[in-house]
Structure prediction request, 201 residues.
Amino acid sequence: MGDYVLFQMWGPYRASLIEQHKFYVKEARNRLLSRFDDIEADSDKAADEWLEASGKWFDPDNDDPGSYYEAANDVGIQHYQMLRDMREQTRLSVVAGMYHQWDKALRDWLVREIQHWHRGDNVRAKVWGADFVQIIDLLESFGWALRAAPYFKSLDACRLVVNVYKHGEGASLQDLKQRYPEFLHDPFAWSAPHFDRTAGI
Prediction:
């Protein structure tokens, strides 16, 4: 094909994609993730509110005050666990949205670029029907060593995390375990010092 350019990204378009990404990350942090900055205080407040609301039923002659405080503590722990789980779900939703936004922009760009030199009717369907590995294979077939690029591992790990979040157990989970185990947290792999710190809860 000589010196013919098959894929080209216009500078201002590239800059707008980067700006959209930065905006997404900044606003997700400010509007969503920051809501979980102090879940410990939120949990303490839930326990205090439960104790205050339950106090009207407390009978000092028949009720054990310790059991009320223990129940309030349980409410606080449960509230913390639910907020922690919600924080993780929110974080994963943000990452999934970010990844899908990137993936759609890439596929739109590929379709437009391919249509400059190939007018077939199936271009759009083929690009949108291809999986991530096939897209990377296509681009590498034109000489781009994407898998050797410094950003590829982060991108590939993000893809697998999003797929596991979306689909649960399956091929993506196995790939993630094998290639990027640092993204999987084992709740039973507590170290002794960590266990000792939480023993009194």
In short: The CA atoms of residues 106 and 135 lie 10 Å apart. The helical segments are 11-31, 39-54, 65-117, 123-129, 132-141, 152-167, 171-179, 192-198.
